[in-house]
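input
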Amino acid sequence: MNALIFRFIVISLIFLCCNPAEASEISIVTEDFPPYSYLKDGKITGVSTEVVRAVLKEVGTDAEIKIYPWARAYRSALNEKNVLIYSIGRTKERENLFKWVGIVAPCDIYLFKLKERKEIKADSLDTAKHYVLGILRQDMCLDYLKSKGFDNITVSDTDEDSIKILVRKRVDLIPFAELSFVFSVRKLGYDPSDFEKVCFIKDLSEGLYMAFSKETPDILVERFKNALDKVKADGTYNRIMNAYSLK
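output
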């Protein structure tokens, strides 16, 4: 039996054994994180959300998506059964905490500062250690930067709070997804040109994932992996990326 036939049999068994009722019992959580996930006219949308909805359609479930503050969404996926969380970064610290499905959107992470603050020179992580950072609670940047020796950190409850304390000069730098930063700054009424990205964080810029809580059955996780693979193979994923001017 060649590898292609064997894979077909395995996938067929997964779809036969994992019925739609199991998929419909999952909880789906994310955060307000434009353009990846956000509310528009009372509906949750965004580039990551559209990919997730395409996967749900492929799986055959209309499970509801809920937006929570990131710390709450993260705790839910960390501690509860059958929880799907998306727009989550994958790091070494998180690797064994979740069952990873796959990338749902590209994401580049930078350190940002106020452009007027000429005295801040942070073109590398080593030089950035001399400054105060504002970081979202339970964000992947928090664990990562702590592991790199950063200890002068102010933790915020929301992304918007991080931007506000940067503007008020209570912190010097904040790590942020480049695309989301522009959306969030404009939402708060600030001009994106008043800010400057100073340091690219390569290790955190692999992309944003969808992942299941650890107590989720492997057969259900595999079903979602196969559905995401199909969404990418049939061109749906690229069409969504193009609609948001992403590659």
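quick obs: The two ends are 37 Å apart (CA to CA).
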